[in-house]
Design a protein that fits this description.
- The protein is 48% helix and 16% strand.
- It is an alpha/beta fold.
- The strands form two sheets. The chain has a six-stranded mixed β-sheet, with helices on both faces. It has a four-stranded antiparallel β-sheet with strand order 4-5-3-6.
- A hairpin with a 2-residue loop joins strand 4 and strand 5.
């Protein structure tokens, strides 16, 4: 039996014009953008579709991306393409939760907007940093960081690619030490803070207060949480997991390993770009990953998965 996962990327994939073709072609996608505009008191069409400086600012980026993801997903689900499991990297987890029916779409957009503000304001601008570490095993990176203060692992993206985070000077020194210990390359990232580090503990506490005011339900569809890389099927742990996610490492590689072990054989990357597809192929070169960035790609995916399901039905 084929299993399908919907995947949602994290911050950094945003680009001006994203979602405009969905807005033009789908009444349901238009509704998501219009509902988000009303809920947040801002013009989401202008934010996502036009060239502007705000789209790359964390306090706006996260809400823009989740709005995009939910609009694109509506097009798929209305065509009968449904996931068996969902997952999202960092902010993408909020889209995964909404699609799993653990929370309302507008609550996801509202919360991720608040999350972006809290994360952006958590530490003085420029005092934190993040750095990608390429070509080094996870255990070796962990060993180097264990000897240092103020620097932590932020993301386990895929084999040979991790991201470290923390105090800027500590991150820079750790990057030098990692290269000396065998990392093929380190790349400082253009981000506004030390995301997914204990330095954001205050933001996590603030977010938890917001989460306590938000209703959650048992997911209709399991989602894989970044914090533990395990499926969540009940509402009770969701608030604590979302609060902890801000200052804990994103275990994306482990999440994908869990999905593959559970028999997921089709992945649909919804959003912008093919970042998650690249990560997945480092785990399994033959995995089926379909991107949904444009309207045309959505139609291709719908046609392919409809044909797959008809073939499976005939052979059953």
């Amino acid at each position: 039996m084929s299993k399908t996962a919907f995947l949602y990327p994290g911050q950094g994939v945003q680009t001006p014009g994203m979602g405009a073709d969905f807005y033009r072609n789908s009444a349901s996608a238009r509704a998501v953008f219009d509902e988000a505009s009303a809920a947040l008191g801002m013009d989401m069409r202008a934010l996502c579709f036009e060239n502007n400086d705000r789209l790359d600012q964390t306090e706006y980026t996260q809400a823009a991306l989740v709005t995009l993801y939910l609009a694109q997903t509506r097009v798929l689900t209305e065509a009968g393409i449904l996931p068996d499991v969902t997952a999202g990297l960092s902010l993408g987890e909020y889209a995964a939760l909404a699609v799993s029916h653990a929370m309302q779409e507008q609550d996801a957009i509202r919360l991720v907007r608040r999350r972006g503000i809290l994360m952006q304001n958590a530490v003085p601008d420029g005092s934190g940093a993040m750095c990608a570490v390429l070509g080094m095993k996870e255990a070796a990176v962990e060993e180097v960081l264990a000897e240092r203060e103020g620097v932590f692992i932020a993301n386990y993206n895929c084999p040979g690619q991790l991201v470290i985070t923390g105090v800027r000077s500590a991150v820079e020194e750790a990057a030098e030490a990692l290269r000396a210990s065998g990392a093929r390359r380190t790349v400082m990232l253009n981000v506004s803070g030390p995301f997914h580090s204990p330095l954001l503990a205050g933001a996590a506490e603030e977010l938890e207060r917001e989460l306590l005011q938000t209703p959650f339900s048992d997911p209709d569809i399991p989602y894989i949480t970044n914090v533990t890389a395990q499926p969540v099927t009940e509402k009770e742990p969701i608030r604590a997991l979302l609060a902890r996610q801000i200052c804990a490492p994103v275990r994306w590689m482990q999440s994908m390993q869990r999905m593959l072990a559970d028999g997921v054989d089709t992945f649909v990357e919804i959003g912008a770009g093919k970042t998650l597809a690249g990560f997945l192929r480092k785990l399994d070169r033959n995995v089926n990953v379909y991107p949904v960035t444009t309207w045309e790609e959505a139609q291709i995916v719908i046609a392919k998965l409809e044909a797959r399901d008809k073939k499976l039905w005939r052979s059953a």
